[in-house]
Amino acid sequence: MRSLSVLKIMLLMFVLLKSAYAQTSEIQAKVYGVMDGDTISVVTLDKKQIKIRLSQIDAPESKQPQGQKSKQSLSDLVYGKTVTIKTESVDKYGRTIGTIFVNGVDVNLEQIKRGMAWFYTQYGHDSVYREAEKKAKSLRIGLWNDSAPTPPWEWRHGSKLSSSTLSTSPLLSSCGVKQYCKEMSSCAEAQMYLTKCGRTKLDRDRDGVACESLCK
């Protein structure tokens, strides 16, 4: 029994050390794909393919205003280049969260400076990023040149349904009998059933997003 306890302790120490290493590790890789303004695909020196989500920032989604410009900006910075990635964690989608550096330049921060991404207040912790956003906003650079840019987290969560959609769609004007994601015809409808009709089973992981298969 004692040997079993010692084995458990050693195993726990290994897991903790591995976790600590993963949170502070650096990897070098070549960028072969740019998904949007805050997500890239890389291949490491040992030929491992990894999808990277840039930490502390949130770029406009591809279908949002400035979405394609944000993607192009990130592509100009990293595509085809060898980068250094300071990894932090892995999100629920299997993407590695980290900061990208090219020749010593913080690419995450550069996207904010260019007005191509928001400082992600929910997950951000660096005051330099926050100040960079304030400066870009004051200079009306990039997305800040729009009169009222919608943060991507609001756009994703469907919290800004247009009044015209609400008035013309019978599905969205009142609560019906639908209960499951497979019954929903769109992300907007699923989000309405979650927030307006109390269908909490549509949000299994309780992150505020209904039916993530629809609301990607």
TrEMBL record:
Residues 1-22 form the signal peptide. It holds the Pfam family SNase. Its EC number is 3.1.-.-. It is an enzyme of class 3 (hydrolase). GO terms for molecular function: endonuclease activity; hydrolase activity; nucleic acid binding. InterPro entries: Excalibur_Ca-bd_domain, SNase_OB-fold_sf, Staphylococal_nuclease_OB-fold, Thermonucl_AS. Residues 25-146 form the TNase-like domain. Keywords: Endonuclease, Hydrolase, Nuclease, Signal. The keyword Zinc does not apply. This is Endonuclease yncB.
